[in-house]
Amino acid sequence: MTTNTPGTLLNTLLRTVFVIGAMATLALPARAQVTSAPAVAPAALVAQPAPKAAKLPAPTTDVDKATCAQAGCHPEVKDYKAVHGPVNVNACDACHKLVDAPKHLYMLTRPKNETCTFCHKIETKDAVVVHQPVKTGDCLGCHNPHGGKTAKILRGDTMKATCERCHKDVTANKKFVHGPVAAGACDSCHLPHASKNPKLLVEQGKTLCVNCHKEMGEQLKKAKVTHKPVMEGECVQCHDPHASDFKMQVKADPFTLCTSCHEHDKIKDLATKAPNKHSAVMKDQACMNCHTPHGGPLAKLMKAQPVDLCMKCHKDPQKTRAGRVVNAVPEVLDPKLSKHGPVRDGTCGGCHDVHGSEQTRLLVKPYPESFYAKFDPENFALCFTCHDKKLVEAKEAEGLTGFRNGTQNLHYVHVDKEKGRTCRACHETHAGPNPVHIRDSVPFGQWELPVNFKKTANGGSCAPGCHQEYRYDRTNAVDNGTKGNATPAIAPPPAAPAPKPAANVPPAPPPAATPAPAATTSAPAPKPADVPSENISTLNLKPSAPKAGGK
């Protein structure tokens, strides 16, 4: 028998108080425990997970089905977020039947493929495609018969995880994943059991896509022009329905994708091999910088009127890959200016090949860049696409042009020669302040050479930096003094000829050198240094009937 000393009794009392205090602290509400520091409980008092019930020995007689899922037997069949209906109500005999009580042996109440379809009807009669597990009656390949994490009691934690048990990962670590795939909702597009459409799709082609992409569906209803793949309902011709390394799940970069079909249009060769390339065709969204890929109101699927599209970039100077600066052309949008026909019609493609060209400035045909050029119809092939060559080649211009003096063709005078003036010498390429877009001035090296064109009711006049003022009239040809070799206003007056000596009179000594008086008779006029003589000396000015319009 142990003797309790005073010290022993005190220690026992203190331990008892400590335990009671700890138990009281554990019993306090959560808020009370936060406001006061809890006492440290002995290890024996810390909550421990409830131990699993020991597995009971299998019964050897028939038992009440309500006991199947009890602890110690088969509790795991209910350990799911979603539990199969028969399991939930302990109706194990809906699917299982006892065949050997001493061995506690059960088997399915019906053949495997009928056990599920006895309750779950799956219609496959009109289906074009039946999912292989359904065809072979292997419902349990996808479904857990007792429960799962999803309402459909799938084997995987998600629909995607279940599908990937057989099907490879369709995303393959690609950058851009289609929304339903990213969410694991394969059944947004595919039916799991059977379908009248290929690949178990809910709907075919475009119809399936616009079920979600409703805004696109509305756009296509209004479109006057529809891209052929869209018209045929083949969205997957351009898009990967699962994932891609390119935005919008397109199958390749925009240029490669578009030219996989449009290679026959020579666009690919022009864009990649032409000596003069248009950067807009290759950079950023490439073809989609200008074209809508689905459908729209404009021909060739243009996003906007061509001139408006071009001016999104060309309202500002643009630098080419070679370092050349392409000047801005804001005059194109100025409503007060006289427009070149293609510009007026909004068709930049009338003169420019927008995908690439053999010609500089992306022109569709040759046209000189210089102020002067030898006349050759091939050099002006671009202009003669619309304008008659006779406009320049014919000496007589009645019925051809309003830029004539009587019937004499003044285009011929300026252009059709060894050192002819090109069209740009007098005309703005895109738009100008005067009729038929005649320039106010033209760049000539560092000099802005003035044109000084004035229009009259039946003709006009020019006083440019290259010759004096000349006038023309379509009805009554103007004599600008060239027949009599009149002196141009910009030339100095010539010296008068010395008088002949009288007969039998000794010649007078030569007079002292003094400035010669102005000539009273016509004398050959010196030419300006940079103006060929034929500009003023070969005019054959004849009156003729007027022609409406023109320069």
Provide an overview of this structure.
With 551 residues, the chain is α+β, with helices and mostly antiparallel strands. The protein is built from 17 helices and 25 strands. The strands form 12 sheets. The chain has a 3-stranded antiparallel beta sheet with strand order 23-24-25, with no helix packed on it. Strands 1-5 form a two-stranded antiparallel sheet. A hairpin with a 2-residue loop joins strand 23 (453-456) and strand 24 (459-462). The longest helix is centred in the first third of the chain and has 22 residues, at 6-27. Residues 1-45, 484-497, 499-508 and 510-551 have low confidence and may be disordered.
Helix content: 10-25%
What's the alpha carbon Rg, rounded to whole Å?
48 Å
The number of distinct helices, counting runs of at least 4 residues, comes to 17
Distance between the termini: 139 Å
Which residues sit in consecutive blocks of at least 5 with pLDDT less than 50? 1-45, 484-497, 499-508, 510-551
Characterize the largest beta sheet: strand count, sense, and whether it forms a barrel: 3 strands, antiparallel
Number of strands: 25
Average pLDDT works out at 80
The secondary structure category is: alpha+beta
Shape: rod-shaped
Strand sequence of the main sheet, in spatial order?
23-24-25
Beta strand %: 5-15%
How is the secondary structure organized here?
Layout (H helix, E strand, L loop, with lengths): L5 H22 L2 H6 L46 E2 L1 H4 L7 E5 L4 E4 L3 H6 L11 E2 L1 H4 L11 E2 L10 H5 L12 E2 L1 H4 L11 E2 L9 H6 L3 H9 L2 E2 L1 H4 L11 E2 L9 H9 L4 H7 L2 E2 L17 E2 L9 H9 L3 E2 L5 E2 L11 E2 L1 H4 L11 E2 L14 E2 L16 H4 L10 E2 L2 E2 H6 L4 E2 L9 E2 L8 E4 L2 E4 L2 E4 L2 E4 L7 E4 L60 H4 L14
Antiparallel strand pairs: 1-5, 2-3, 4-7, 6-9, 8-11, 10-15, 12-13, 14-20, 16-19, 17-18, 21-22, 23-24, 24-25
